[in-house]
Amino acid sequence: MAQKGMTTNRLNIVSREEWGAAAPKQKASPLNGPAQRVFIHHTALPKCTGLKECKERLVSIQRGHMTERSFDDIGYNFIVGRDGTVFEGRGWGVVGAHTKYNNGDSLGIAFMGNFNNDVPSTEALSSAKQLLQDGVSQGFISPEFALLGHRDKGQTDCPGAKLYAALPQLKGSK
């Protein structure tokens, strides 16, 4: 997991402690090596504005994952806000609960908002791209990773049509 206020290159990651995460029911299993795939999701909730509202939304998402879905923790490894703020979910190097039957070799990154009609912000896309680059440079993500939308492996519209269309922007040269 990221350290408090962890900065990776130019990216500041808001730690679990900083956003008020509950303790997981049990420790997440480690990934067996760098993630080979990264799945992009959306929370399918209204976008949040401001750090306070986004932190409250994350606490609510985590509670829902742990109580309604019986997950051990929030399902995503990282969550990206509209303003480009990145929040630590389960963090680097651990198995998430984001894409059924596909979590053992992957990371899950969720964008806060509903992107069936809304367009992801430039700031959010830029931060997610930087997060991916940082993950590769730190050895948490394979340099040849596959970037997928949740819909590529599940019966869902996730991550929404507008975010799915933007996926090519997340991978590529700096």
Write up this protein.
- The chain has four helices and seven strands, in the order E-E-H-E-H-E-E-E-H-E-H.
- The protein has 174 residues and is an alpha/beta fold.
- A seven-stranded mixed β-sheet has the order 1-2-5-4-6-3-7.
- The radius of gyration is 14 Å and the shape is globular.
Summarize the structure.
With 174 residues, the protein is α/β, with parallel strands linked by helices.
Tell me the layout of helices and strands.
Layout: E1 7-8, E2 11-14, H1 16-19, E3 35-42, H2 51-67, E4 78-80, E5 86-88, E6 106-111, H3 122-137, E7 141-149, H4 161-165
Parallel strand pairs: 2-5, 3-6, 3-7, 4-6
Antiparallel strand pairs: 1-2, 4-5
Give structural attributes.
174 residues, 7 strands, disordered N terminus, seven-stranded mixed sheet, alpha/beta, single chain
Q: Are there runs of 5+ residues with pLDDT below 50, and where? A: 1-8
Oligomer: single chain
- Following the backbone from N to C, one meets helices and strands in this order, namely EEHEHEEEHEH
Give the strand order, joined by hyphens, for the main sheet. 1-2-5-4-6-3-7
Our measurement of the CA-to-CA distance between the termini, rounded to an integer number of angstroms, reads 25 Å
The computed structural class is: alpha/beta
Helix content: 10-25%
> How would you sum up the global shape?
globular
Strands, total number:
7
Largest sheet entry: 7 strands, mixed
